[in-house]
User: Which sequence fits this backbone?
């Protein structure tokens, strides 16, 4: 599903690369935690998959395609297959929960009647039934993140990237979002989640990929936040 081969990313020549010779393969249906200290390159790795950045050298592949060589006009298509949620939710403040999700469907040209049917279904799926008409500032942080997840899901992405999705949430609310991502993974979506949340990583016991100063220092099946034997 995702393959990185000798991927190096330098934002400025002469400085230490943000990613340094990364080799990584993620199969369809996997759940992967991406961990490492601040500045170790986690967001950069996700940005390469979204084609927000291109590697300085090496190859990033998604579903067998070289992501860097996808023509600009086809990048929106990539971003339907590779969904993302962020720490700061990034919702449109002037649209309701339903409006935010509908907007994501409208831009992909889905017919109105499909949007009207699917939006409440997806909001129900993420646990927001009854709150469809609330604006982001009328929702808790966890609820806003659920809207962001719903918005990512309506495109039916093959891979969902989550960059510190629980970073702004209290532990219980973060655990709720984690359960939601786990459920999305169980129905077949590949999930890659960058996080500093040690408790969640330790509880879930999934594959853990650890970066340090841009290099991959650990790739462990059923790992914890800290390396174990
Ligand atoms: N747009 C940019 N321009 C220049 N340097 C950047 C840019 N984005 C990131 N960097 C640098 O690249 C390195 C990796 O940053 P990155 O954001 O990928 O780390 P991270 O592991 O996601 O950190 P955090 O956990 O704090 O989000 C850092 O040294 C950072 O300063």
Assistant:
């Amino acid at each position: 599903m995702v393959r990185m081969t000798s991927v190096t990313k330098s934002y400025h020549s002469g400085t230490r690369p943000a990613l340094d010779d990364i080799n990584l393969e993620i199969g369809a249906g996997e759940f992967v935690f991406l961990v490492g200290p601040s500045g170790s390159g986690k967001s950069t790795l996700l940005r390469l998959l979204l084609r927000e950045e291109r590697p300085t050298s090496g190859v990033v592949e998604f579903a067998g395609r070289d992501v860097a060589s996808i023509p600009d006009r086809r990048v929106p298509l990539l971003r339907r297959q590779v969904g993302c949620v962020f720490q700061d939710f990034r919702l449109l403040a002037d649209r309701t929960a339903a409006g935010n999700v509908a907007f994501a469907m409208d831009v992909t040209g889905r017919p109105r009647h499909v949007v009207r049917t699917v939006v409440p279904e997806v909001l129900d799926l993420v646990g927001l039934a009854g709150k469809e008409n609330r604006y982001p500032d009328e929702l808790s942080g966890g609820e806003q993140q659920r809207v962001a997840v719903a918005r990512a899901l309506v495109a039916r992405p093959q891979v969902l990237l989550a960059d510190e999705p629980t970073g702004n949430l209290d532990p219980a609310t973060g655990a709720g979002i984690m359960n939601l991502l786990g459920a999305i993974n169980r129905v077949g979506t590949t999930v890659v989640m960058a996080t500093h949340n040690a408790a969640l990583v330790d509880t879930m016991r999934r594959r853990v990929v650890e970066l340090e100063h841009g290099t991959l220092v650990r790739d462990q099946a059923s790992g914890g936040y800290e390396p174990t034997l």
Residues 11, 18, 36, 38-44 surround adenosine-5'-triphosphate (CB under 6 Å). Helices lie at 42-49, 75-81, 97-106, 112-125, 141-153, 171-186, 198-204.
